[in-house]
Amino acid sequence: MTEQSRYDRIGGADGVRAVVERFYDLMEHEPFYAALRAMHQADLFPLRVSLAEFLSGWLGGPRIWFDARPGACMMSIHRDMGITRETASLWVHAMRRAMAECRVDRTLGTEIQQAFLHMAGGMMRE
């Protein structure tokens, strides 16, 4: 029996989209995330699509984001955003909250959060 990918465990495309939508809704509407929101363009729709595509591939599902951007690196894309310890922490917090509110399996959520903590730490520029 083969092990399910994280993509399958999160609920496939629907599960990924739910987490991404909740993440951006939190960022857009919760004052707590204002510093994180201020770093992003006014129209979040393209980012919602891009993050869902990225996470799908990153979690072991369709690699739409990676196929459309051969050689692209998520870390490099964020290099000039001036990510601070505060905004990295807000990003991780919003993702953790989005996964919890979308009822992502706790074990899977912990696995993903560990990777997000590492990614966010690598993107900080302070």
Automatic annotation (TrEMBL):
Source domain of life = Bacteria
Among CDD domains, the record links this protein to: TrHb2_PhHbO-like_O (cd14773)
Keywords, A to Z, come to: Heme, Iron, Metal-binding, Transport
GO MF, one term, reads: metal ion binding
The question of whether Lipid biosynthesis is a record keyword is answered with no
Q: Which InterPro entries match?
A: Globin-like_sf (IPR009050), Globin/Proto (IPR012292), Hemoglobin_trunc (IPR001486)
- Listed name of the protein: Bacterial-like globin
Per the UniProt record, the source organism is: Sphingomonas jeddahensis
Tell me the organism's taxonomic lineage: Bacteria, Pseudomonadati, Pseudomonadota, Alphaproteobacteria, Sphingomonadales
